[in-house]
Amino acid sequence: MRVRASFALLLAATGCTTTYTIPKTEISRLDGWFVPDLVLVRPGDGHVADPMSVRVRDTEGREHLFTEDTPLVLVQSNGAVIAEKYLEVDVDRQHFRGVPQDAFRRTVEVPLREVQSAGIRELHLGKTLLLCTGVALGVVGTLVGVRLAIGEPPPPPPGMDPCGEVGCPF
After folding, report:
1. Helix or strand holding residue 129 (H, E)
2. Domain ranges in the chain?
3. Bridge partners, 76 (sequence order)
């Protein structure tokens, strides 16, 4: 039972996102973005950093909030795909640089001329509900099918009742 529940949770967690394509020009809007909890003081002036709020537009014109929980997907000209959640992003005219959440002190650096396309991934509620409903219906359908295929267990023969004539108290 735990294996089935874990499998259903894995499907729900991985299969419920949508990648929205963003124009390459929108990458530059992420310049200077960082997670404020980790960088408490701005260099030079000693003030506490303000929370970052950056919105990027996809190719269809919808705005999406970029946060530390938003994976940024970069597709390079050679076909390599980099999909990471970042702690800090710097973009200049020639390079994208980002510090991923999962690899401390490692920086992803990609020349912008090598970026073929970009996108962000977000949770898609409709897909989540459809997937969970499909998994639940599949499990119920399987249980009903097995029950119909096997049928009812045969009744015990008349003198073989394990409780005898007294009846079982359970």
Report:
1. helix 125-150
2. 15-123
3. 115
